[in-house]
């Protein structure tokens, strides 16, 4: 004999409210549930009162969602703001490359040790074909375009408005997707390049301070990290 609980479970649902979804877009996103890049559908929905499974009366609009094609989990549309793994890797490579060029422009490219440290940093970020000659050439071209090297004060020109804007444009979108340790790592990588040929010069310190600011690291924390890096044997 069935229990009362079992009988209730077998009773058909006579009426209820269901959401009917329509796909309005698709693409690839980083699924928080899967922990990786997945295809998605962007859905809009309408709630309807149903009787015996038949939709009858509208009950308003449902909030739009993003549905993962793999796990079928629904996420708020803000999930699309998180870069895919592929996009994040590209953003990180661009950021490291830009910061490296800024440090080299501030400290110069005459030191073989500095160029070796710069190449190692850029390659670790994923630009495996980077060479010392490439970095040297790009920095020289940048110097020529900005007019540096013709009697100007390197410290004054190291991180002028144009370079500061470029660093913020590259680093600011990346910073929210990096943990605190990740932001510090980008700063310390650039600090090690600057320190490869000795203590920071004024121009290098100015660039590194701007890097910390663009990454959203408080000024006092940036100063502490740079000081610790300078005390750490290379």
Question: Which key terms come to mind for this protein?
Answer:
234 residues; alpha+beta; 4-stranded antiparallel sheet; 9 helices; 4 strands; 21% strand
Give structural notes.
Residues 95-225 form the Co-chaperone DjlA N-terminal domain. It holds the Pfam family TerB. InterPro entries: DjlA_N, TerB-like. The protein is α+β, with helices and mostly antiparallel strands and 234 residues long. It is built from nine helices and four strands; from the N terminus they run H-E-E-E-E-H-H-H-H-H-H-H-H. The protein has helices at residues 4-10, 85-107, 112-124, 132-146, 154-157, 161-171, 180-195, 202-214, 219-231; strands at 15-31, 36-51, 54-68, 74-75. The longest helix is centred in the middle third of the chain and has 23 residues, at 85-107. It is elongated. The model is unreliable at 149-156 (pLDDT under 50).
